[in-house]
Structures are given as C-alpha cells and as structure tokens.
Amino acid sequence: MASSSEEIELRPQPGRKDFHYRGDTRGLVAQIAAAFGIAVVFDDSVLSRPVRFNLDQVDFYTALQLAGMMGKTFWAPLSAKQILVAADTPDNRRRFDRVSERTFYLPASATPQEINELSGVLRGLFDIRSISPAPSRGVLVLRAPKRLLDPATQFLESLGAGRPQVLLDVKVFEVSQTSLRNLGVQLPLQFQMFNLPSLAALLTASPSLLSQINQLIASGAINQANTTAIAALLAQAQSQSLNPLLTTPFFTFGGGTTLMAVTVPPALLNVSFNSSNFRSVQHMTLRAGDGDPATFFLGQRFPVLNATFSPIFNTPAIAQVIANNSFLAPFPSFTYEDLGLSLKATPQVHATSDISLQLEMKIQSLAGSSENGIPLLVHREYTGTVRLKDGETAVVVGTISRSDQKGRSGLPGLGNLPVLRGAVTNQKVQHTEDELLVVITPHLVSVPEGAETEIWLPPSR
Question: Using one digit for the tens of pLDDT, what is the confidence trace for 93-108?
Fold first, then answer.
C-alpha cells in the first residue's frame, strides 16, 4: 500500500573536495559519502567493480553522480545524514525512489495531438517516466520524485500563462492598366464588279418602291398606321442587288453591251486612343496566437461542371415523359473552385520580440480557355518564411504581368515598304499591365507575464 509523507531532504556538509581513489565501486561511494558526513547503506544488488576516480574540487552531488555512472548505481535518502545505494535497474527505481503524483488539467482548447506531444517533451526534458495522458478529458497525470515534479510543474504552469498575440496588418494593392491605339489608313480590299447595261435595264423594269407601297395601301394589305410593315419593305429594298449602284461610287470600262462598272468603297482614316486604369486596395487585420495559423481569402467561388446526366436508351417510360413535357433532367455535378488570393500566415514570437511569419500564398484565376467545356485554371503559389521586428513592414509578394498585342492590316506588298507603310496600312497596338502587391506588418499586442522564467533541475542521483 502506498504511503503519503514528506520527502526526505539530505543535508551533506557544504564545500568541495579532492578525490584520488583506486579500488571498487563500494569503496568509492563510501569514501565520497564519508567526506561530506553521510552514512551509506548498500543494497545487495550493488556489484563491486574496479574503478579509478580522480577529481579535484567537486561537490557532493557531482561526485556521487559520477560515481553512480561508473558503477551503474543510484542513491535514495534514508534520513538527513544517510543514503541507500542500489543498482540502477527499473525494478530498484520502483522500489526505492520516493515518488509523488500530480494531476494537471489542461485548457479545453488543447487537442489530443498537443497533449501527446507535451507528454513526450516532459519525458525528454525532465526524465519523467510515468506519465498518464487522458486526451479525451484534457488531463495529464505525472508520477515522479518531487525533485523532478517541481520543475515540471513550473514548466506546465508557464505554458498556462498564455501565448503571445500577434496582429497582422495585411494590405493588397492591385493595379490594372489597359491602352488601345488604332492609327492609320484602312484602304478598301474588296471591290464589286457588274455589267452596267444589264443593271440599268433591271432598274428601269423594276417598279418604284413608292408605287409598291401605294398599291399595298390601296388594296388594304397595309395601312398608313402600320409603320412596322412599311419599315420592313424599306429594309428589303435596301438589301436588293441594286443597292451598290444606287449608294456607292463606281467607275466604268469597256463599251456597248460590255460596259462594266466597278464600285469604289470608301477609305477610312482611323485615329483613336483608348485607355483605362483600375486601382484596388484591400486592407485586412488578422489576429493570431503564437504558433496558430491565420487564414485569409479574397476572391470568389467559381462553379466548375464535372458531369451531366442524360438517358442513353429511349425507353417507353422516357418517351412518355418527354411527350407530355414532364421530363426533368437530373441536376449536374459540379465543384466550387476558389478564385482569387488565399493567404495563410503562422506567426512565431522570439525572445527578442522579433516575429517570424511562415507564409503560404496561393493565387488562382481563370486561364480564359477551356478543354471539353471545363475551364482551365491558372495557379501560382508562394511559400516562405520572413522574420520581422515589431511594426516592421515587408513586401511579401509582388507580381507584374504585361502583355502587348500588335496588329497591322493593309495592301499586300505596299504595306511592307518603309516609305508607304504609314499611308497604306492600319495599325492596332494594345498594351495590358497588371500588378499585384501584398504588404504585411506584424504587431505584437500581448506578451504573457513570466514567459522568460528560467527552470532549474536539481542534481541527479
């Protein structure tokens, strides 16, 4: 049955001693203990091993620790002036080590993974072997000697003081500029040729448009109030083959029945310039704890079609619902894609108040083309770490996209001559420039008290 009592405190004589010993392990431990006024009781498990021990100016705990490492032993206090020395085995540790048990209730926000990681840290730092984590209840039970349990308690209490808080000031600048210049002469490249006597005879034999409208009104087919029908007749007349002769200049060649006419389309002089500028500033503030990620998304969700459904076989049942217009097509399958800027920042506060930011940034947009009806996406990603001082600003990402499109139209051959190029060609120049700049500034808003407390471990036994 386990008993509860105060831990025995050993009180060796203060000071430092010199040791120059050659013999066995039992004699070495006895000599060290006698030098500091301590009596020794050896357990039967201690084996005598030949050792040579030479040290100058060492204290009691250091000398006994080194002797235990050489002889593979450990010690436990029996009183203020007496110790028990036994072989360092797990069974002897359980028998002779006086242990205490403490239960720690962790914050409700602690995840099972964090509790298990904390157990591993305690085993590695404080050599506490008996740890019983209960992640479902947020409980951690430690069983260890009081000399190890006290610094572990101090360590756990310092964790409960809270994490530093960081305010992230994020600004996203977006600038888009587009300019279009259309300059030059657009000469006619197509001409229409027709026989002039045949076209004149057809024009003479064709009744006038006004007489046709009057005949329709007299017969009652249309009335003067029906302006829609009259407008349709005018549009039909303008689309007839006589239109080039009536509205377009032409020149003739030949004679008699072979008199031909060629239309002369007008030439166009283009002098135009269009320019557009777009500026956008997005300002966000995100607050995150030390080691906790903060995620921000700026953009829109775009549906991308995955599959559609349609009947393969025309069964009598399907034919019936189609005939009576009661067929409902199944809803298509699609997924949403995030288009825009996605930023994930994980701050880490250092002892010098510097802040390291682990950044993950994604920029996704439509490519402007598709394959099998599915739009293609353009994906750009940045991952990195930047270290800043409190209030220091850094440009995280800056992208510039430029595109130039040039087009020239004109007469073949003449448009390639340097002298006549400006007089017989028309040039279109389009310039597009997009800039994106992401600026981030961390601010340390809170630091828990006692975060810099030092934890000292007692001498090993």
Answer: 777 777 778 888 877 6
